[in-house]
Write a structure and sequence with these properties.
By secondary structure, the chain is an alpha+beta fold. Helix content is 26%, strand content 26%. It has one domain: Endonuclease/exonuclease/phosphatase (Deoxyribonuclease I, Chain A), CATH 3.60.10. 42% of the residues are buried. Belongs to the DNA repair enzymes AP/ExoA family.
């Protein structure tokens, strides 16, 4: 099972840059999208169906043109769950889960902390999300949480850890939360296979950051510890340029 996570930074904009053609070539079984910034009515669902993804689930934010997640699948899930049931999360369209026979795949878009108010909201979201996942794992142990976590885990995951240590996304408290979240029962699938530096999934649009590979690794496919023996491959796909992020892939036996 090949699974991709991709923050498309606006699915309609990504489509104008060749996203659907790329999707056919990448050919995942399931793709989790974040920051779709559109409602289903605004998305060319027929074109996506024609590309091989008849099962499409969209969870937009209440606010137009903002946030939102989606899951596209070749096969029909047994069950789809929109949101977490936690109001302060769900009106921003940040969590969507598809349950298959032998695993569940979640698309997550964790908030950024662009200012003090949003940083406080981010920490509240993270705490409540941890509680939600702790309970969910008791019912669904084979869980894969794909998405934009808006946090670099370690210094290896950011191009300039010294200058960015006071920037949201690399704050010590954010990193400590992500570290504890992983240790609560998840494998960072990319780092499971690759320990090398200079691998990123997001670059600023400013100052030629992507061309100079001055990036951040903030997109993850976290896989439940109980599925470790099923991990086959995990890679970052920086050549896909439909967004300021790039896709991240994991393959499960």
């Amino acid at each position: 099972m090949k699974i991709i996570s991709y923050n498309v930074n606006g699915i309609r904009a990504a489509i104008t840059k060749g996203f659907i053609e790329w999707l056919q070539q990448a050919n995942p079984d399931v793709i989790c999208l974040q920051e779709i910034k559109a409602t289903e009515e605004q998305i060319p669902v027929e074109d996506i169906t024609a590309a091989g993804y008849p099962y499409q689930y969209y969870y937009p934010a209440t606010k137009k043109g903002y946030s939102g997640v989606a899951i596209l699948s070749k096969t029909k899930p047994n069950n789809v769950v929109y949101g977490t049931g936690i109001q302060h999360m769900d009106f921003e369209g940040r969590n969507l889960r598809a349950d298959f026979d032998d695993c569940s795949v979640m698309s997550l878009y964790l908030p950024s902390g662009t200012n003090i108010e949003r940083l406080d909201h981010k920490f509240m979201f993270m705490d409540d999300f941890q509680t939600y996942i702790n309970e969910l794992k008791l019912m669904i142990p084979n869980l894969i949480i794909c998405g934009d976590y808006n946090i670099c885990h370690e210094a290896i995951d950011i191009h300039d850890p010294v200058r960015n240590k006071t920037v949201s996304g690399f704050l010590p408290a954010e990193r400590a939360w992500l570290d504890a979240f992983m240790k609560s029962g998840f494998i960072d699938s990319f780092r499971h296979f690759n320990k090398e530096p200079h691998h990123y999934s997001w670059w600023s649009y400013r100052a030629g950051a992507r061309g100079n590979n001055k990036g951040w690794r903030i997109d993850y496919n976290l896989v439940s510890n109980v599925m470790e023996h099923r991990l086959k491959r995990a890679v970052i796909l920086p050549d896909a340029v439909h967004s300021d992020h790039c896709p991240v892939l994991v393959e499960i036996e």
